[in-house]
Amino acid sequence: MSAYEFEGGFRAGYFQVGDERDPIDLVFSFPKNGRDCYLMATDGDPYELCKEMSALQEYNESTAHLCSTHTVKTNSQYMDRAGWVAYLITTPAVLTSDLPNSADITGEIVRFHLAIPLCKEEYEIKLANDNDTLMEYFEKTRRDIVAFGAHA
Question: How much is the pTM?
C-alpha cells in the first residue's frame, strides 16, 4: 500500500489488486473529519487518482456532502487530458458485491462511496435524465468502469 498527504491535510492511498500482468489499483481517500471514504478501482495513474480521491474527500468535508447518485465536476488537468469531466458517486456494489457499503474502522463507522469518472456524454445523460438512465446506458454500452481510458 502507498499513501500520500495533499494540501489541507487530506490523504489518499492505493493498493494493487488482481494479477500483476494486468494490474488494477484500488484508490481510496482517508476521512479527515467525516465518516465517508471515496474509492475507485482503476488502471489509471494511481498517484494522480489519489490526488482526485483526496480532492473528493476535501469537497465532501468542506463544500457539500457527496453521496450515492451525486455527480461532481472535476477540474483536474489529468482527468481533462483523459476525457473525463465529472464523477458519479455511487455504491461500491456497482463495482462488485464483495465491497461493503460501510465498515467499523477503529470504532468509527466509515461509509464507502465508489467514484466513477464520467465523460462529457455520460455526464450530460445523467444531468438530463437520472441515475437509472445512466446505469442503463452503462449496461447497454458495456461501459468498463475500471479501464481509465475506455471511452477514448
Answer: 0.90
